[in-house]
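User: My instructor asked us to take a sequence, write out its structure as tokens, and then describe one feature of it. I'm not sure where to start. Here is the sequence I was given:
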Amino acid sequence: MSASKLIRLSKSHIGDAEKKAVMGVIDREYLGMGAEVQQFEQGLSDFFGRPAVCVVNGTAALHLALQACGIGPGDQVLVQSLTYVASFQAISATGAIPVACEVNPATLTLDWRDAEKRMTSRTKAIMPVHYAGGVGALDEIYEFANKHGLRVIEDAAHAFGTIYQGKRVGGFGDIACFSFGGIKNITSGEGGCIVTSDPEVLQRVQDARLLGVEKDTQNRFSGQRSWEFDVSAQGWRYHMSNIMAAIGIEQLSQITSFKDKRVKLANLYLTELADVSEISFLNHDYDELMPHLFVVKAKKRENLRSYLLHEGVETGIHYKLNHVLSKYKDTVHLPVSVSLYNEIISLPLHLDLSSDDVRFVCNKIKKFYKLC
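Assistant: Let's start with the prediction itself. The structure tokens for your sequence are:
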């Protein structure tokens, strides 16, 4: 690599406040699920305007949400193939079958019209993926789901902080699942949450995250253990720890500045690359969404990636299509997704990225196409 500095594709952003909060948990020596998790859940519930339940990661959130809706063996769930494998794994973990669908090429979010063609009598839910922070045709997806009696489990791992038609994603609709992984819009190291107004789903998720021990959440939050209890449904060890929640509490308090920075960098990319004909953008309003990724469609994608890496710029491809993976291999015909997979490239976007870094990346992209 010729460049002395590597501009990373993504990275965690952890400050002194988060470190101090973690040390506070360690000093108190109550590392499991307790007061900090309760505080983080309350902060998230206030943020969304309805109840949130914290779990160990975003995949667990999807898994528990599906299970709480009664999704199980033999059922089918509509989901786009262009998503991280976590979406598919969460579905198959219940015994259900993920049905790979196309995306809208303008937004890379679920094409509900294509999904409708793939419905059967076994279809029980639809999982729209809020790709890169955008939500696509969410109103139409809900209309479609209501028409066919489907549950909607939003994979909102990328969309924490996104606004849709004046409403905060997660603050409305059926069920939304978020990830707080290390490089997400806010992080708790790992972690995730389920947000819904459905009291039955909430109770099932609360119990299932603690191995199915009924009403154990209340005891954990009061610093106690359940010694006499019942278990009536399959559970998992999916609860969040106080260490994770301590980080999340501090990150949530900075959500406004985090969003402002990500939006500023995304809009700078739009400005700097506006005249590069070989680059096209997703149809997102970056003043509304909180971008987790900055994805573009690029000509000569592989050559561009190699050139940028040589010049000290890390890039990515989000994501490998699920219907070509060995576990989910299918003969389904998804020409739009296949074509897009060969064009998309993720450019660096994180809170430690400077405006000068973005300009450097854009200048290198312009230089590459001039040399072609």
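For the description part of your assignment, you could build on this observation: The longest helix spans residues 255-272. Try explaining in your own words what that tells you about the chain.
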